[in-house]
Amino acid sequence: MSDNTTASSGGQTAAPATTGRRVPTRYLVLALIFIITALNYADRSSLSITGTSLQEDLGFSSVQLGYIFSAFSWAYVVGQIPGGILLDRFGARRVYALILGLWTLVTAAISLVGLITTPVLVAVTVIFVLRLLLGVFESPAFPANARVATAWFPTAERGRATAVFNSAQYFATALFAPVMGWVTHQFGWRWVFVLLGVLGVVLAVVWLRWMDSPRHHPRVTPAELETITAGGGLVDLDAPKTGTSDAPKLQRARLDRRTIAKIFSTRALWGVYVSQYAVNALTYFFITWFPVYLVQGRGLSLLEVGFVAALPALCGFAGGLAGGFFSDAMLRRGYSLTAARKVPSVIGMGLATSIALCSLTDSSPLIIAIMTLAFFGKGLGSLGWAITTDIAPPQATSFVGSTMNAFGNVAGIVTPIVIGYTVQATGSFNTALWFVAAHGLLSLVGLAAMGTIRRIQFDEP
After folding, report:
1. Is there a contact between 373 and 440 (Cβ–Cβ < 8 Å)?
2. Taking the domains of the chain in order of start, what are their residue ranges?
3. I need a surface site. Which of 178, 252, 305, 309 has the fewest CB within 10 A?
4. What are the Major facilitator superfamily (MFS) profile domain coordinates in residue numbering (predicted)?
């Protein structure tokens, strides 16, 4: 039976028959989390576009701006494990709706800072706190994405699915950087945060009204449900936790101390953590200091930066999609899961190290070309979420995703601060570029430490 057959599942009344090709519901789910993730990254990267104007308006120093850039990640890291526990307990639908609404309010609130005369230290503190809250509220988002992908996609499609939502970070820059640059140029930096707030409210309503688990979603056909289930999708991951016979065992499994101890003693997961940290170091350079580098280091105008920053982002987006599709294509051609996930990762992160070459030239067009290549490679090699969905034990999918995201986003604390101090001490971005490039090599160490990629199974206590 085709995925496109229109019928009902889970005991629901059959839907009317339709003619023509029907888009599988899992692809619509993926489109929705892609759009939400793009907004997620637009929110967290908004200061990279507005940072120069905000710095001039409120009087921040480079070090203060570096700390503000890092504030998000301090809270984002701390919030990962509690966020994962909430997801394992309450499911992605409810948790995602709540956090999307909360992070939207915090983003919009930044527009109010400094409307009345405010001492610099007070303004720094207020924005720092708001960015901390943004980090807390966004912390479950990517683990929720991974949880949705684990439930809605068979293993052979999961590389593509995770690549699509992960590549939203590049699409966000490609789409929103020019828009935010133009809005800042025309109306001022405050209106960027108002715009993002309005978009967040709309998406929170759409998510809450339309999203459900695969087995209970009214649009899912029996054929599509069979495709997902037979292919290894955990369709009951967010099913109601009842005591009836149809309640899946993985939902009744407990995330206890014994399981957590096993997770933190598993070498493969530590390989994922190290690799994700390295990948995120490049990400956070791009969404924090890169636009500032173009303004202060290369002399571009703010309006030019919005469009120039979109070029590496578009190539990062293309690389992210290419990595996922390349990985799944290798699986279809009979390569092992380990080879299918690692080969694109190694190639991509090798290319990402080319960012160091920017320190060897004064040509702005050549620098943009190198950045474009580096971020294509970074996108190609960003398969950490696919690997996590492949190896996480069923009773702790969100917990493992959250711990991976926590370790990975320590880079969001370290990278902006190190670059801030480096730029202030040297008056140049050259050392900072070498620092960022070194993380491409670190990611290869993590990939080697993973060993064979397969789902971890823990016996129930």
Report:
1. no
2. 25-238+248-450
3. 252
4. 29-455
Contact between 214 and 30 under an 8 Å Cβ cutoff? The reply is no
For residues 264, 269, 270, 272, the Cα torsion angle rounded to the nearest 10 degrees is -150
Q: How far apart are CA 273 and CA 358, in angstroms?
A: 28
Q: Which of 415, 449, 393, 433 is nearest to 274 (CA)?
A: 449
Residue 171 half-sphere exposure toward CB, CA atoms < 13 A: 18
Question: Which pLDDT does position 459 carry in this prediction?
Answer: 60
Dump pLDDT digits (tens) for 5-48: 443 334 443 344 444 568 888 999 999 999 999 998 888 878 87
Q: Of all residues in the chain, what percent carry a pLDDT higher than 70? A: 88
| Spatial CA neighbour of 52 closest among 283, 287, 284, 296 | 296
The answer to whether 128 touches 413, Cβ cutoff 8 Å, is no
* DSSP secondary structure letter of residue 12: P
Does the pTM exceed 0.85?
no
pLDDT at residue 3 in the model: 55
pLDDT tens digit string along 126-183? Answer: 888 998 999 899 988 888 888 888 888 888 888 788 888 877 877 777 778 788 888 8
User: Residue 133 has what pLDDT?
Assistant: 93
The rounded distance, in Å, linking the Cα atoms of 457 and 267 is 14
- Which phi and psi angles does 16 have, rounded to 5°? -60, 145
Q: Is CATH 1.20.1250.20 correct for 25-238+248-450?
A: yes
Q: If you search the block for the tokens 């309005």, which residue do you land on?
A: 198
H-only helix segments in 249-309: 249-252, 257-263, 267-284, 290-292, 302-308
| Whether the Cβ atoms of residue 54 and residue 47 lie closer than 8 Å to each other | yes
Confidence of residue 254 (pLDDT cuts 50, 70, 90): low
Q: Tokens at residue 224, please?
A: 């599509």
**Tokens read off for 382:** 């960003």
Query: How many CB atoms lie under 10 A from the CB of residue 19?
Result: 6
Residue 78, SS3 per DSSP: helix
Given this model, what pLDDT does residue 8 score? 38
